[in-house]
Amino acid sequence: MDWAALAELLRDAAPSMLKGTGYTVAFALASMVGGLLLGFPTALMRLSRWKLVRAPAELYVSAMRGTPLLVQLYVIYYWLPSIGIDFPPVVAGVLALSLNAGAFLSESIRGAVLGVSEGQWRASFSLGLGYWFTLYHVVLPQALRVAVPSMSNTLISLIKDTSLVSVVTISELMLATKEAVAGSANPLPLYMTAAVIYWCLSLLFEALQRYLERRLNRAQR
Question: Pfam families attached here (predicted)?
Fold first, then answer.
């Protein structure tokens, strides 16, 4: 193996790959925020006792979880313009990732809320507290501690799923790697480098997950 040639290859590709890494993190975080904004009300809708409220949320979750993210990207970026709904590539990518993440996050939140003892609700109601006050001040703080691991897993998955937005010409890490590979006769080191970067990002967010879990566990003591 020519180590000098390998070092030169990685040095030449480094600027574009680092820029792509920044886009990857930005897309993942933006999609996580978007997913939470969609997932929280969806979870509450799925917890409703009224079928008319539950049904749209159940349809959304089923569609997003039951179809590939790549197909969802194609629908939003390539099909919607045919009916007059056109999104720039960045918006289409974040929207698709947010819709997908929102479905999974809603299930994490719903499961965590259902995991809180029914006695917590009854105790709050017996004190004259209303549904929304009990939800926000009694149930959700406990549910959040339970939901953090699965929500963190969704964020880690988003880090890897951003590689799919390259199909709508967004220059995140994977597209930057493909562009670097196009001018190289030895693509394996570049793809391995991209894999290591994704792995390091995942490790970073795993460390953040453990930190949040410790903080929440201390707050519950």
Answer: BPD_transp_1
